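As the next step, I selected for study one protein, both as residues and as discrete backbone shape codes, as given directly below:
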Amino acid sequence: MANKPQQQPPHLHLAELSASQFVDIWKHFDADGNGYIEGKELENFFRELETARKGVGVDPTNPTFREKMKEFMQKFDKNKDGRIEMAELAQILPTEENFLLCFRQFVGSSAEFMAAWRRYDTDRSGYIEANELKGFLSDLLKKANRHYDDQKLHEYTQTILKMFDLNGDGKLGLSEMARLLPVQENFLLKFQGVKLTTEQFNAIFTYYDKDGNGYIDELELDALLQDLYAKNNKEVDMKNLPGYKQSIMALSDGGKLYRSELEIVLCREPML
């Protein structure tokens, strides 16, 4: 990894990028793989972008560079968190096959995302595998009125896996796929600090499944989430809690949230 900064940044000079080239750029600048271009990564990205566009080098110590970078962030950092996420980069770079924007047209909220997840995680494994992902993307492209052939669909599938399959097992967990959502819509991020072990999850689910029928309803989920916040010394986000519940209940079967479905949200994490 030590020689990574010396590598030539890929594709920034191109007038138009393929989906695969977009991923190459993302992986080059998101050096720590945390899902954001930030800090020194962000400075490097802006410097290389300016160099590619002007054809000459730029000096990051120049006050003009800092001012331009500030204007750049005001324009593209939509959620004002001081860093660039994948969907924001898709707005910056001239991507020919902008499947990220297709995804946004198809799934506009986390509740819709969870409903889509339920449709495509057909075996209820908690993961979308490559064949399920292909169906997901095919539906996505149809809804966005994008024409594609089998070869292009295969390329998109491989690109999404390359981008989001963090542990390289050929399938995507819910937390991985949710990175397609804007940060403000990604309710799963709210539970990062309250992830449970399997034993802890089983204990808390059994406690709230009072009648032992194997599922909990929305009222029981409300109590469970508030309890989780309290146990982890977090202030309950009353403003957004209804939205979180709606998103989780989108996984339910007619208002019945089964153990395996809630476990996907509160327990399972991709093994990095």
Observations:
- The CA atoms of residues 47 and 58 lie 6 Å apart.
- The longest strand covers residues 127-129.
- Residues 40-54 form the longest helix (15 residues).
